[in-house]
Amino acid sequence: MNETLVTVVGNVATTPVFRELASGPVARFRLAVTARYYDAVQNVWADGHTNFFTVWAKRSLGSNVQGSLAIGEPVIVQGRLKVRDEERGGQHWTSADIDAITIGHDLSRGTSAFRRVLKANTALTEPAGAREPERGPQREPEPEPVG
User: pTM score, two decimals?
Assistant: First the structure.
């Protein structure tokens, strides 16, 4: 099945909401994407229409979103686009969701400090013999006495 993969550049519009579900952690937030265009008549850059997407981040990506993103921050989101039509309370709703594969700060508009997530102790999860045995500190041999 073909999926619609998109890469979208915009700003975090809502505080990320984090939930721990039976299927694993998930975070969601709204992303505002505003087109910019050059208005040659007024000789200025202007804002065009703003599109809003609901971004869904699952598993470790969802956990990392919780501790990394805040309202107004510029981000780049890549993921699967899903457009949903539904009826609620007699009203017709259309929403555009992105099932995120990756999310990062837009470094063309600011700086960011990366913090690696500590993984669980791999010695407990790796099969026996998969790791090389640890060796103590290595010293150079002492030189032979002369004479």
Answer: 0.74
